[in-house]
């Protein structure tokens, strides 16, 4: 069969190996995010093209045809069918593999990534804390199918056996508090069990769970990896090549692949991951320091907060906010926490209002925060958390800090508190 340009079609269906040149590993993450997929460039485009094809032409050289079942090469050299691999998602996986320091596999959502991890590991027991409510939905499904037993996160190590799983979310939803990854890795490994870390709240740039003993890293790529509130995505990463191959194979039959458009958006997004996440995390820490100083009466050391920290403002904040939680406030955990999160403590924090009425009303009094669930986008979000999680107290507000000027967000919160306090007294 003849078609336009013979070899060109082969070049476009680029080699689906996600492994970048070894030299790329020497670069800093910001550089890797721009160049980890250079080995997949086969045409002059600077911005990668969006490939929508579900099927790809086989080689025109009959000698090179590898019939199904012929494993003389572990991976075919070109894409075949998009439920297996496709150019945009492979390119995204190549960048994520470098940033996560393992082999990354993408999925249609964070929950489908967790599902794939449980199908693969098939533990008899899973030790899991509160965390993101949706993960418990997946665990419950697996329980229904396999009888897997659910244990609390603080279960005794002796309750775990070989092949079991500790599922650790850190920082954890909704509070943004962090757990010691190494401690849980040692606990799991002492029993021949595995540690899966849901690192959605602490993406590359903030923490590297493999450095502290994680066996699998899971992400809802919908959040920071996507970063623009416009793509659903899940990611698993492993440092074991044998596990990676099985995960890829399993995904072909689970069918929970990331769409090509999402793969394309994801590439656009990860280019700026480091910039966004560091800025958002820094913004969050400044806001939390200010709020905590106001609520607790401790002095705020944050430069630039002097005017906003007047005693009148402190009284105002205290009228609306009872308590703030964020990993930056875990003063007693600094010894391990500063090793685990050396570049910042994550962009999500929680605050408890002094009444349910205030928690319910605050989001609608703010101008720079959308009242919406989710997190990780460049825009600041606030959520009265009872809207999506029935397991939390009705005074809880979850905040996902965006890339706006933190002084502007702080002042917006302040005017929101003022509006609520005024309504309460009038
Ligand atoms: C959002 C989220 C998930 C689920 O991810 P989806 O992409 O929505 O499926 C899992 N874990 C955490 C911590 C999350 O924030």
UniProtKB/TrEMBL annotation:
PROSITE patterns: CYS_MET_METAB_PP. Keywords: Pyridoxal phosphate, Transferase. Residues 1-12 have a biased composition (Polar residues). The keyword Transferase applies. Residues 1-21 are annotated as: Disordered. The modification N6-(pyridoxal phosphate)lysine is found at residue 223. Signal peptide: none annotated. It comes from the Eukaryota. Transmembrane segments: none annotated. Its cofactor is pyridoxal 5'-phosphate. SUPFAM superfamilies: PLP-dependent transferases. One of its GO terms (biological process) is transsulfuration. InterPro entries: Cys/Met-Metab_PyrdxlP-dep_enz, Cys_met_metab_PP, PyrdxlP-dep_Trfase, PyrdxlP-dep_Trfase_major, PyrdxlP-dep_Trfase_small. GO terms for molecular function: carbon-sulfur lyase activity; pyridoxal phosphate binding; transferase activity. The keyword Transport does not apply. Pfam families: Cys_Met_Meta_PP. Belongs to the trans-sulfuration enzymes family. This is PLP-dependent transferase. GO terms for cellular component: cytoplasm.
């Amino acid at each position: 069969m003849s078609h336009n340009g013979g070899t060109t079609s082969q070049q476009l269906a680029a080699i689906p190996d996600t492994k970048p040149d070894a030299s790329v590993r020497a670069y800093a993450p910001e550089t890797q995010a721009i160049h980890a997929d250079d080995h997949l460039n086969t045409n002059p485009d600077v911005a990668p093209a969006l490939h929508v094809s579900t099927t790809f032409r086989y080689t025109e050289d009959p000698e090179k045809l590898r019939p199904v079942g012929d494993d003389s090469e572990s991976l075919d050299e070109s894409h075949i069918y998009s439920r297996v691999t496709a150019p945009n998602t492979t390119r995204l996986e190549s960048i994520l593999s470098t940033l996560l320091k393992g082999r990354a596999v993408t999925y249609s959502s964070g929950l489908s990534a967790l599902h794939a991890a449980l199908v693969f590991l098939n533990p008899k027991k899973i030790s899991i804390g509160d965390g993101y409510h949706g993960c418990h939905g997946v665990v419950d499904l697996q329980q229904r199918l396999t009888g897997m037993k659910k244990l609390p996160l603080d279960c005794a190590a002796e309750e775990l056996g070989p092949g079991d799983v500790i599922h650790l979310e850190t920082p954890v939803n909704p509070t943004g508090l962090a757990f010691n990854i190494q401690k849980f890795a040692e606990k799991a490994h002492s029993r021949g069990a595995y540690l899966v870390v849901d690192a959605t709240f602490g993406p590359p740039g903030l923490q590297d769970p493999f450095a502290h003993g994680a066996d699998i890293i899971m992400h809802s790529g919908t959040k920071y990896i996507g970063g623009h509130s416009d793509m659903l995505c899940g990611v698993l990463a492993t440092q074991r090549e044998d596990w990676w191959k099985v995960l890829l194979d399993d995904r072909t039959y689970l069918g929970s692949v990331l769409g090509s458009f999402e793969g394309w958006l994801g590439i656009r997004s990860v280019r700026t991951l480091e910039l966004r996440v560091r800025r958002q995390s820094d913004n969050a820490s400044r806001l939390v320091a200010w709020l905590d100083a106001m609520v607790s009466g401790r002095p705020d050391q944050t430069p630039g907060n002097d005017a906003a920290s007047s005693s009148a403002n402190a009284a105002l904040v205290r009228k609306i906010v009872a308590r703030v939680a964020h990993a930056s406030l875990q003063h007693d955990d600094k010894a391990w926490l500063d090793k685990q999160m050396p570049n910042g403590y994550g962009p999500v924090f929680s605050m408890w209002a002094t009444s349910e009425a205030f928690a319910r009303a605050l989001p609608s009094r703010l101008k720079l925060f959308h009242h919406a669930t989710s997190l990780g986008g460049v825009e600041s979000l606030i959520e009265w958390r009872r809207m999506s999680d029935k397991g939390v107290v009705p005074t809880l507000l979850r905040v996902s800090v965006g890339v706006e000027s933190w002084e502007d967000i702080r002042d917006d919160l302040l005017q929101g508190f003022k509006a609520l306090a005024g309504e309460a007294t009038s």
